[in-house]
Amino acid sequence: MKRLIAWAFAIVSGLYLLLMGPMIGPLDPIPILDEATALMIFIKATNYLGFNFGRWIPFFGKGKARDGKGPGSGPTVDD
Known about the structure:
This protein is an all-alpha fold. The chain has a domain at 2-23 and 32-56. 42% of the residues lie in helices and 0% in strands. The longest helix is centred in the N-terminal third of the chain and has 18 residues, at 2-19. 9% of the residues are buried.
């Protein structure tokens, strides 16, 4: 059942990106849902299904973990 819901989210958000993404103007049927939200839903749903489309989007990858060697890595000392 979860895979069916993930497929539905992937198909609907993918179609929204393909059809409504290039369209500009007052023809937006769902003004709350913008292209960034649809992209996030599409990437998460396809990741759940086993397809990794996020590797082609450079800003959607995982951030680098801090190694603790930069400024602010030590204990905080208040004067």
